[in-house]
Amino acid sequence: LASMSVSIISTISVIEYLTQYKTQLVAILFFVLFINSINTRSRTKQFIYLMIVTMVVNLFIQIALYYFPNNFIRLLVNDKYYEVLRLNAARSRYFIDMYESALIPLLFINITLIHTQERIIRWLIILLISASALLSSFRTHLLMLIISSMSLLLFIKKSVFSYRNIALVFLFFALIIYIPRFQQNNTSSFTRLVDPSESDYSTVFSRIYYWKESYKIFSAYPVFGIGLSNYYDLLQGKKTIVFSLSDPQNRLDKITQTHPHNIVLATLAETGLVGFIALMLLLGYFIKEDASVFLSKNVNLKLVSISFWSLFFFALLNPPTIIQYQVLFWTLRGLLYNKNL
């Protein structure tokens, strides 16, 4: 937070800086409140149930927003996200804001201790999340699904986690079931990964361009960076990076160019060496703490750690700037910090 504060020194757009600073501050304050309130096993258990419920509710909200954009649910999301959703819908792209693919491991917490009916419900939720990730046009959702699911198979011992083979079979059949849909809908995340179109390649090249520009900005402002959310102000050639002449695409390009789509390079450009060193120290601390988790016998904490790093993967390819991501990020760290699972 201190490194973000000093980055205001070189800030061009103070309003953009303060908007993002507020988001970061709220998320960190939430973390402090979380570790001091959800600090017993009973409260943690109740909170996990609450998270599972909110996962389902969020999925239905996102689906409703896509198919019924003008209903009252629109009031529950911020304007910029709603605009991105509608611009992608105009391109027949199904982009929804969901991180549930990374949270699948949480559904296995204490799964061997719960009743059969609840176990079935959790599997149905996993099916819903997987189907949403597979049918979405957001490739990162599918990648998070693969990372979180494969991590379950790799790191959770069979003697404790007897469902890993079932999970593998489930993923296989989920793919088989939706193959016909993939063939008809060339904008699904699966198709965009295995059979990318020219525009799909363009988004990859654009990310590489953004990453290069991040380093150029860092070179110009090496100590404190250009300031939070000020990357776009110094982005070179931002008016020429377009994939079509259609208004929705041009507007979408302008929105997506406001962040380099990588948390490490964004930190380097926006907060300089001061912020970069702070981020590396923080990630180093997380890795050290989670390494001890995987050396322990606490399966539940391992599941939370898998979810956290699956979620962090999102930030390596996309902007992790909205409040929902930040709060979820620090919620998972809070669960790992308190160790009440």
User: What's the gyration radius in Å?
Assistant: 20 Å
Number of strands: 0
Biggest sheet, in brief?
none
Mean pLDDT: 80
Structural class by sheet pairing and helices: mainly alpha
Outline type: globular
Sheet-strand content, in percent, reads under 5%
**Helical run tally:** 15
Q: What is the helix content?
A: over 70%
Q: What is the CA-CA span between the terminal residues?
A: 28 Å
Low-confidence stretches: 180-185, 240-246
Helix and strand run: HHHHHHHHHHHHHHH
What does this structure look like?
With 341 residues, the chain is an all-alpha fold. The chain has 15 helices and no strands. The protein has helices at residues 2-6, 14-37, 41-67, 79-90, 100-103, 116-135, 139-155, 164-184, 189-194, 198-220, 231-234, 247-256, 263-295, 299-317, 323-338. α7 (139-155) runs antiparallel to α8 and α13 packs antiparallel against α14. The two termini are 28 Å apart. The model is unreliable at 180-185 and 240-246 (pLDDT under 50).
Main traits of this protein?
341 residues, 71% helix
Indicate the topology:
Elements: H1 2-6, H2 14-37, H3 41-67, H4 79-90, H5 100-103, H6 116-135, H7 139-155, H8 164-184, H9 189-194, H10 198-220, H11 231-234, H12 247-256, H13 263-295, H14 299-317, H15 323-338
Helix pairs in contact: 2-15, 4-12, 6-8, 7-8, 7-14, 10-13, 13-14, 14-15
